[in-house]
Amino acid sequence: xTERGLVQPPPPITGPRTCDLAEVLERxxxxxxxxxxxxxxDLLDIELLTIRLRLFVSSVDTARKAGIDWWETDPxxxxxxxxxxxxxxxxxxxxxxxxxxxxxSRMDPDELSTIGDATAEKGGDA
Length: 126
Description:
Strand order of the largest sheet: 1-2
Order of helices and strands: HEEHHHH
Number of strands: 2
């Protein structure tokens, strides 16, 4: 009788390790990537246009570590920044109003009436 042994399949061929898009994206966001380039348009040795492109792709945490946080202070992108900008504008307007009221309180009643008369002639409220 012949003894039949189990035949083992050959070991798998290993090539370069492939990774899917999710792994690549995770690495890029974790470490960050910088893409830089310049575009120059010259005509007869006269520089007409230069465009410098800098692109930094990363996660928010990586960007903060790199000292980049402009989205937190841009009112168009951050509701907190918009509130802060509005509060600052409000404070400036209140200061201006206070200064005008102070000036008016030091004026003679005759001067105040001439201001009111001039405003009424222009069609405004006195």
